[in-house]
Amino acid sequence: MWKLTKKFANNGKYASYVSNSASSVENKVAHEKGNVKRFEEIPGPTSYPVVGTLYKYAPFIGDYNAEAVDKNAWLNWRRYGSLVRETPGVRLLHVYDPQDIEAVFRQDHRYPARRSHVAMLHYRLNKPHVYNTGGLLSTNGPEWWKLRSTFQKNFSSPQSVKNHIGKTDNVTTEFVQWIKDRNVSHNEDFLPYLNRLNLEVIGIVAFNERFESFTPEEQDPNSRSSKCIKAAFGSNSGIMRLDKGFLWKLFKTPLYRTLAESQEYLEKVSTEILMKRTHFFLHDDENDDSLLGSFLKHDIIDLKDVLGMMVDIMMAAIDTTAYATSFCLYHVSRNPEIQQKMFEEISALLPTKDAKITSDVVSKAVYVKSCIKESLRLNPVAIGVGRLTQKDFVLKGYLIPEGTVIVTQNMVACRLPQYVKNPLIFKPERWLRGSENYENIHPFLSLPFGFGPRSCIARRLAEQNICITLIRLIREFNIKWMGGELGIRTLLINKPDKPVTLSFIPRNE
Fold it and tell me: What superkingdom does the record give (predicted)?
């Protein structure tokens, strides 16, 4: 016999999840509230034999764009509602309502699964001399949990994250000085400079390695730092299209070759750093509190797993933090009153421009952090969170079979007036308890770093890095936006679709 395990109220309706066969689910729910509907009855575009709904993404005949997943999600929501079915090669369900999103996550397996980075998994498993697994991003099950539980303490414990504040501040201070010396103007795209900053930060924090990204030599396209940034983008940019496709399984398509070449370069750099550390240092460096230093102090960690984690770190950190920071700067620079409030808070915490940022400064930068949360609501790292269901369950009266890919459409939901007041307005105060503009926002509405044990392993570190960057830039400059509306390109992670055009006006002390 199966057991009904939980119910979630949803405007008088219920989403129940269960632990046994589909027929048992149907019988029980039929007794309680009528017949359970089949997955195929969920509203969505017409599905045809063999191709399913892939035709929607085809050039000329389809009205979906593989690089504008946010726009596809808007179309689906307007046409079909808060639950949308697709079958682009897999059984896919889009979920928009935060109560339904909560219901999805509440039935998570012990080892939450995703169907993502499929081509990268294939690539890594075909290199057993380099990798033990597909890595943290593409692996599922107990193998994933072994990696996650081994590495997560060093990434996510509050004290470990605080230990990196001084080094991050030093790098960011150098960056601010470089902006002044370089006289960066709004005629340049600021995003590549944020890529370099985040490579430099993650280099020192994760590997105790300086890439010297802002030296004239390293700004050459053939330099190590330039090629690392290019390889991170090459690894991330094709993931979604490769996940939808299958031809790469038959032969090496151009997109798959880009992924493989990008991974190979990140492997090369990571191997060089790792070998330098393991061959040249006979004893642990007691002063090294980098992530790599902490990994190497654990005798039980296999060096192949360490190498895989190093590649994953460079893949994940360079682009995602740069993109998130660029959207923060976009919103703040377009709202001078908000920027002034940030400056007043920052100048109270840092009375002089050369004052050091400490953990106390970061913890008290409450308004700065509310600006980051609001920016991540409007422009999250990704459109939502993915899950691969590992059992049958019922959602809004529909049977969701095991093996369904679910995408929670948080970015669209965060821009809907039924969930947020004046949702398109940048209003950091909506996150500040005690503010007259505070909103009790549903906890599953904005999930920029995911949810549960499968959430971003470096969340605290990423938020801290963005916070320090904003503190330093706004303490030094009055920043103005010089471009038009900034949208996104969805390449697994949300990238600005236009140059990030900012004017930096030095502030008087």
Answer: Eukaryota
How many independent structural domains does the chain possess? Answer: 2
Dist CA 105 CA 444 (whole Å): 9
* 207 Cα distance to chain centroid: 21
Give the residues across from 95 on adjacent strands: 83, 408
Do 457 and 356 belong to one domain?
A: yes
What stretches of 183-253 show up as alpha helix (H) in DSSP? 191-207, 224-237, 239-244
- Structure-token pair, residue 411: 């970015």
Is 414 contained in some domain? no
> Which H or E run contains 14?
strand 13-18
Q: Which domain holds residue 306?
A: 127-382+448-506
Q: With beta carbons less than 8 A apart as the criterion, state whether 295 and 301 touch.
A: yes
Do 97 and 169 belong together in one domain? no
Nearest to 379 by CA among 330, 422, 340: 330
- Same-domain status, 56 and 93: yes
Neighbouring C-beta atoms of residue 471, cutoff 10 Å: 22
Rounded CA-CA distance 134/143 in Å is 10
Q: Are residues 370 and 452 in the same domain?
A: yes
Question: How far apart are the C-alpha atoms of 84 and 475, rounded to whole Å?
Answer: 45
DSSP E strand boundaries for 79-203: 83-86, 92-95
385 and 450 in contact (C-beta within 8 Å)? yes
Return the closest-CA partner of residue 454 out of 398, 379, 378, 382. 382
Tens digits of residue pLDDT in 30-69 = 444 458 999 999 999 999 988 888 888 888 888 888 778 8
pTM score, whole prediction: 0.90
CA–CA dist 75, 60 (Å, integer): 17
Describe the crossing of helices 191-207 and 165-182 by its angle, rounded to 10 degrees: 150
Nearest residue to 457 via CA among 141, 59, 32, 153 = 153
Q: How far apart are CA 308 and CA 286, in angstroms?
A: 24
